[in-house]
Design brief:
It is built from 23 helices and no strands. It is mainly α.
């Protein structure tokens, strides 16, 4: 009964927040958009920014700030909470790992449903509701005195809200605003998230050491409710909603890319410039069913599943692994921060080349580098070697925006959130079972050797699958349209 009232209250608060004037125009269901700009004489900030600074970059800045805080408190925070929460509540490593892992897998299982809602109603509406849930969840989490309240707070509020707001919704909004610079924009968003962790993780470590993990949890509540939520009205659902086109593209150029007639001049139709424009602004828009029928989608999904298998156990237990190697908690946290810090330049570098190089090379190469980092982590207890391992593993995370950006590049933006949700659901079992199994193995054998070996095998397999991925073949419907 209490849960029902809580969710009802959150829903009503979200609806009230969304009814504020800056958001009123987006309260209706959103149908798949076409690239047809609004030519009304005045439509929000679009008219001003179209000639000066593309508003999509402002949207990206806002989402990046939000992602920085979400990354620190939800994505990376459990690695810091794992040991003190378990000690405070009298839980073993496996039980604590299970709850944190359930939180990650819960969002993945709900991925298709959330993705459908994002495609149907728009990303911002879902982001507001998710942010409120996450903020309330961190408040309840900070007062938990037993495993049941801990599980309720983290699974019922924090995990569900954070993944709803920032796993599918925020990424879908970036995909909607950018086409030519899609991977670059997603790289900036991902790098900002890791930059936030690099800055906030040491602060959280200090707060936990001086005060308590509960104070750090309250910091998370403040981040969601006092910083992220007030920024939501500044987000715009799509470039078309304010009279712009993706990337701030010129309307005439986009029209030229989309107009394909039988009487077109072959020389003009085959020009390098026109082909480039078609690739960015007249790309194929697969339906969900059409995408699922392609071999490419299944290679991408399997590569992503294996990548998650190789990562999730190591990510959650990384600090604990270094403590197992007889490093002090503060030193282990510094290694963790170093690894997160290397995410930032790597994602920016990969983002620049991600719009220019084949995704197969970037994804496969990144997983080879990650596997090398695991070899060093497994084989040495030396300070310098482990530092190199942290750098290598951090650099390999640069492929993350390419992993998700390729969905939009291959299959279009209209059903992006739904397709990503399906991929998220496909590896939900790994988010739950791998960290739990890693913790269980340590509880039984006080060793992380075999969990690291299994992660290494999954990383190598992921690299092979990614390398075999190829551009999807157009379905018959789109081939007919392309031929005029």
């Amino acid at each position: 009964m209490t849960m029902r009232y809580c969710f009802s209250a959150v829903f009503r608060i979200g609806m009230f927040y969304l009814s504020m004037p800056p958001l009123q125009r987006f309260m209706t269901s959103r149908q798949p958009e076409t690239y047809t700009p609004d030519k009304s004489p005045s439509r929000g900030p679009g008219r001003f920014f179209s000639g000066r600074f593309f508003y999509g970059w402002w949207v990206l800045v806002l989402i990046s700030v939000m992602a920085a805080m979400n990354n620190a408190f939800f994505d990376k925070g459990p690695a810091l909470f794992l040991i003190p929460v378990g000690a405070s509540l009298g839980l073993n490593r496996a039980t604590t790992s299970l709850i944190f892992s359930l939180g990650r897998s819960e969002g993945a299982v709900a991925g298709p449903m959330v993705g459908y809602l994002v495609d149907r109603f728009g990303a911002r509406r879902i982001m507001v509701i998710g942010t409120i849930l996450a903020g309330i969840g961190f408040i309840i989490f900070s007062f938990a005195q037993n495993v049941w309240v801990f599980a309720l707070a983290y699974l019922g509020f924090v995990a569900f809200g954070a993944t709803m707001a920032f796993q599918d919704s925020a990424t879908a909004m970036v995909v909607t605003w950018f086409s030519r610079y899609r991977v670059r924009a997603m790289s900036i968003r991902e790098a900002s998230g890791n930059l936030g962790s690099t800055i906030l993780i040491p602060l959280m470590t200090l707060v936990i050491a001086i005060y308590d993990w509960r104070v750090a949890a309250l910091m998370g509540a403040g981040a969601y409710l006092l910083v992220i939520l007030p920024l939501m009205p500044l987000l715009k659902e799509s470039p078309e909603s304010i009279g712009l086109l993706p990337d701030g593209a010129n309307e005439a150029d986009v029209k030229a890319a989309r107009v394909v007639t039988e009487t077109s001049d072959p020389a003009e139709a085959g020009s390098e410039e026109l082909q480039r424009l078609r690739r960015y602004y007249a790309g194929a828009e697969f339906t969900v069913r059409e995408a699922l029928r392609t071999t490419c989608f299944w290679y991408l999904m399997m590569g992503t599943v294996l990548r998650q298998v190789s990562r999730v156990g190591i990510d959650l237990h990384y600090v604990a692994i270094l403590e197992w190697k007889d490093f002090d908690t503060s030193i282990a946290a510094l290694f963790f921060t170093l690894r997160l810090g290397m995410n930032v330049p790597s994602k920016l570098i990969v983002g620049y080349f991600g719009d220019k190089m084949p995704a197969q090379i970037i994804l496969g190469g990144g997983m080879v580098i990650y596997s090398l980092g695991l070899v060093l982590l497994l084989s040495s207890d030396g300070l310098m070697i482990l530092a190199i391992s942290a750098v290598i593993m951090g650099m390999s995370e640069g492929i993350t925006p390419v992993n998700w950006g390729v969905i939009g590049n291959y299959f279009g933006r209209h059903h992006y959130a739904t397709l990503r949700g399906i991929i998220n659901m496909s590896y939900s079992w790994a988010l739950l079972s791998v960290p739990f199994a890693t913790g269980w193995w340590f509880d039984q054998y006080t060793s992380y050797t075999w969990p690291i070996v299994i992660s290494l095998g999954a990383g190598v397999a992921s690299a092979v699958i990614y390398a075999l991925m190829c551009q999807p073949k157009l379905p018959t419907r789109l081939e007919v349209m392309a031929q005029g």
